[in-house]
């Protein structure tokens, strides 16, 4: 086995996790096999969406509170946008937390 390139010359990032005898005996629900890249793409998409939602929510909160550094728009000094921004930021934080938790499981 080549240490640098991985098993039998296959690059380490292209290898997939193969099921072992124990996971096969436990059933498909406990199998360690996952299609290559699917979980990573879902995790990245959830993380990116979560970060965008958190940033947008914080901007909406700043505009609703009429903070001096917030961009001016129709949302300025409208308290409803503080609530909308808080809900959006919390939703984004949930996405980020889910993406980070899912990444540590697989």
Write the layout of secondary structure elements.
Blueprint (H helix, E strand, L loop, with lengths): L20 H6 L11 H27 L15 H26 L1
Helix pairs in contact: 2-3
Q: How would the global form be characterised? A: rod-shaped
- How many beta-strand elements? 0
Question: Structural class of the helices, strands and pairings?
Answer: mainly alpha
Distance between the termini: 24 Å
Percent of residues in helical segments? Answer: 55-70%
Integer-rounded radius of gyration: 22 Å
Order of helices and strands: HHH
Strand content: under 5%
Task: Profile the largest sheet.
Answer: none
**Low-confidence regions:** none
How many domains? 2
**pLDDT averaged residue by residue:** 76
- What's the total helix number? 3
Structural notes for this entry:
The protein is mostly helical and 106 residues long. It has two domains: 1-33, no CATH class; 37-105. The protein has helices at 21-26, 38-64, 80-105. Helix 2 packs antiparallel against helix 3. The model has no long low-confidence stretch (mean pLDDT 76).
Give me some keywords for this one.
single chain; 106 residues; mainly alpha; 2 domains; 3 helices
Summary, kept brief:
This protein has three helices and no strands. By secondary structure, it is mainly alpha-helical.
């Amino acid at each position: 086995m080549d240490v640098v390139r991985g098993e039998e010359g296959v690059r380490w990032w292209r290898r997939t996790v193969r099921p072992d005898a124990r996971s096969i005996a436990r059933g498909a629900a406990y199998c360690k096999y996952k299609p290559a890249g699917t979980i990573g793409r879902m995790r990245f998409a959830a993380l990116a969406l979560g970060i965008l939602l958190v940033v947008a929510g914080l901007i909406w909160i700043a505009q609703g509170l009429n903070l001096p550094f917030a961009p001016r728009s129709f949302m300025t000094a409208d308290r409803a946008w503080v609530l909308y921004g808080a809900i959006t930021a919390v939703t984004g934080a949930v996405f980020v937390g889910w993406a980070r938790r899912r990444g540590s499981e697989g």
